[in-house]
Specification:
2 domains; transmembrane transporter activity; Growth Hormone, Chain: A; mainly alpha; MFS_Transporters; transmembrane helix
């Protein structure tokens, strides 16, 4: 992928429009994730008659497939070019919708229908890996690597926006026309996005010998570990804030989640140039401090207002962590390996969110709900310490093409 940092500077509205014109394809891929999210568990359990285990497994399969396919998606973006990978990912989203439609048609054969739903979730996970990684690298190729932080930030905005819109829209589609209509909308969104992507100018994949996965991991893991530690805050708030409010005997858990989401999106929209001005590690350390303070307020809350202030600060603090550390992580490898670096870096967040739920659940059972927020605050402070160490003792600069060791 060519580095366009040397081109005349793009700024303001024009820059944002260029970025949005590409990351909108990631919006489409995440919309296909959000649409069935509120429907499939109830469909599997209540309509098909399977246990809650199977209802949960159908949802989890997508995240499992995303986790396993991310490194391959990054390598594909580096070698095939981001545009081709985005279109392949959108085709995967289309096929997932087709599987849902076939599952509805085979409802009379529950095992076959369940198998089709599981297959659709697996395909969707791979499709999201391809579309998400490809859209980010495509955006960087369009506006130049100097704006990589802003591209990653916009990807986060469209991701959470699509999930927020998708869940209620999917429930509405299901209420109007059942699983068939929901599947049709998913296929339509995917197909439309793929057709709109086809005429868009592509950016050429960079030429150069790719680093092996182990070498990429060796350069990215410190930043990924800091991301994983801080992601526990998002995990415990998204998963357990309702139980926290119930344990306290308070109302308003949904509004607390809304405050977290609003602060998250607002942070990315209000401080788009902070990473370029202050540097990724400096922004990350500020974010860790704010997030840790928010988690402490939640864990120590004695009033609903105190808990809501905590979720607001935690959302605002976590907002820029991913792009701030991602900028530094991606620049730790040669340009023709940036897709692999971004995908490997993202895996740490996937693992963190996957592990936070069960581990926090065990801690909550033994130590109470507030303790998980205090423990998460401690982990976020550990992430800040790791970022401080990386700032004082930075890793070796990106290797030259063909170099495989640090």
């Amino acid at each position: 992928m060519p580095d366009r940092a040397a081109e005349p500077a793009i700024s303001g509205l024009r820059l944002n429009l260029r970025i949005v014109s590409v990351v909108i394809f990631n919006f489409a891929s995440f919309l296909t994730i959000g649409l069935p999210l509120a429907v499939l568990p109830g469909y599997v359990h209540d309509v098909m008659g399977f246990s809650a285990f199977w209802a949960g497994l159908v949802i989890s399969l997508q995240y499992f497939a995303t986790l396993l396919s991310r490194p391959h998606a990054g390598r594909a973006a580096d070698t095939l070019g981001p545009k081709h990978v985005v279109i392949l990912g959108l085709c995967g989203c289309f096929l997932s919708g087709l599987c849902y439609w076939l599952a509805a048609e085979t409802q009379a054969w529950p095992l076959a229908s369940l198998a089709l739903l599981c297959l659709g979730r697996l395909i969707l996970g791979v499709g999201q890996s391809l579309a998400g990684t490809g859209a980010t690298l495509w955006g960087v190729g369009v506006v130049g690597s100097v704006h990589i932080g802003k591209v990653i930030s916009w990807n986060g905005v469209v991701t959470y926006g699509a999930m927020a819109v998708g869940a209620p829209l999917g429930a509405l589609c299901y209420a109007w026309g059942g699983l068939r209509l929901l599947a049709g909308v998913i296929m339509g969104v995917s197909l439309l996005a793929a057709l709109l992507a086809l005429p868009r100018p592509k950016v050429t994949a960079s030429k150069g010998k790719p680093l092996p996965f182990r070498a990429v991991l060796g350069r990215v893991w410190p930043y990924g570990m800091a991301l994983a530690l801080s992601s526990t805050g998002f995990g415990v708030i998204a998963t357990f804030i309702t139980l926290f409010y119930q344990a306290k005997g308070w109302d308003g858990a949904a509004f607390a989640l809304t405050l977290f989401s609003a602060a998250f999106v607002g942070g990315r929209l209000l401080f788009p140039n902070g990473i370029n001005r202050l540097g990724g590690l400096n922004v990350a350390m500020i974010c860790f401090a704010v997030e840790a303070l928010g988690l402490l307020l939640v864990g120590l809350a004695v009033t609903p207002l105190m808990a809501k202030m905590g979720t607001l600060l935690a959302g605002g603090g976590f907002s820029l962590v991913f792009p701030a550390l991602g900028v530094v992580a991606v620049k730790a490898v040669p340009q023709h390996n940036q897709g692999s670096a971004l995908a490997t870096y993202t895996v740490f967040m996937d693992l963190s969110l996957g592990m936070t739920g069960p581990l926090a659940g065990v801690m909550m059972a033994y130590a109470g709900v507030p303790m998980i927020y205090l423990a998460s605050a401690a982990l976020v402070l550990a992430a800040m310490g790791l970022a401080w160490r990386l700032k004082k003792r930075p890793l070796t600069q990106a290797p030259e093409a063909g170099e495989t060791r640090q």
